[in-house]
User: Which sequence fits this backbone?
């Protein structure tokens, strides 16, 4: 049997069609925030998934991660790691952050429906990710043999403290980090990402992931508090900074229509300065970000009488 090709299904959904067993769609499945966060983590750092189940992180190189849906009965699988070799198992990932008595009946129905529709002949494994054991309340009586076999691995995020640290694992643990220490842990992860990840796009994705997790955990987090967690280069990559900066550029455009493009552009930058100061940036950082002289920034920062 030959080596299976890497199946590039990232971001696609597998659906049934009357003329074929499955078809591909770019429609995005509805999902909880935790589903979306894990999907992004496994896409950006697929090695994290294998670390969670005590497998070598290098194993991720032999897999393609995707989210799939089997149209029959509208079943959706949070994530599937498809192997590029026939001797490797397919891994099904399920994220469960709510009480659900039918989690296991639904999970195995989804898996067996998927296996029935695919032409892949690989064996399979399933990984269910819970925030803690108290959420693992699904009925198990009819699935004891499967749950006690190597087919299923259950991961409890609050029990990962003894695992060897990596940026991916620390990002996952941040999801269940106590609110009192979440911001401190986020700063540590950002600093580690800045030192260990050389790829700018991947570093930016990790920073945005951390911001998303913090907003999810701490919805009252202020812009000033967010600014304290990131240096200038990282802060410029966050949604808070981009929203403020976009507002300034839009104001500049509107001013430009009335008083000329150059004057409007400058006016937009000046209007942005108080908001950037509120984010916690210094005069020097704002001048650098906006390309203005520090004297101009200081003058604009003075309260108007």
Assistant:
């Amino acid at each position: 049997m030959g080596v299976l090709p890497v199946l590039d299904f990232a971001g696609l959904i597998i659906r049934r069609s009357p003329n074929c067993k499955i078809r591909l769609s770019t429609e995005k499945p509805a999902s909880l925030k935790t589903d979306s966060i894990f999907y992004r983590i496994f896409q950006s750092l697929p090695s994290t998934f294998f670390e969670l189940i005590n497998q070598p992180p290098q194993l991720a190189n032999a897999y393609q991660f995707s989210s799939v849906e089997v149209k029959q009965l509208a079943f959706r699988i949070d994530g599937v790691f498809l192997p590029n070799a026939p001797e490797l198992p397919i891994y099904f990932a399920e994220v469960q952050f709510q009480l659900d008595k039918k989690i296991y009946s639904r999970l195995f129905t989804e898996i067996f429906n998927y296996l029935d529709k695919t032409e892949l002949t690989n064996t399979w494994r399933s990984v269910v990710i819970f925030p803690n054991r108290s959420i693992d309340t699904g009925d198990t009586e009819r699935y004891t043999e499967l749950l006690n076999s190597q087919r299923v691995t259950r991961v409890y995020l609050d029990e990962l403290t003894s695992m060897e640290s990596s940026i991916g694992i620390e990002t996952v643990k941040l999801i269940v980090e106590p609110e009192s220490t979440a911001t401190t842990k986020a700063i540590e992860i950002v600093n580690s990402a800045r030192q260990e990840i050389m790829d700018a796009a991947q570093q930016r994705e990790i920073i945005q992931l951390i911001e998303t997790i913090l907003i999810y955990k701490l919805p009252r987090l202020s812009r000033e508090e967010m600014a304290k967690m990131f240096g200038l280069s990282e802060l410029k990559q966050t949604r808070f900074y981009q929203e403020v900066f976009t507002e300034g550029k839009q104001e500049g455009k509107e001013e430009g229509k009335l008083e000329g493009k150059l004057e409007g552009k400058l006016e937009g930058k000046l209007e942005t300065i108080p908001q950037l100061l509120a984010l916690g940036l210094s005069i020097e950082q704002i001048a650098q970000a906006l390309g203005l002289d520090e004297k101009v920034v200081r003058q604009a920062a003075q309260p108007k009488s």
Observations:
- The chain is about 50% helix and 15% strand.
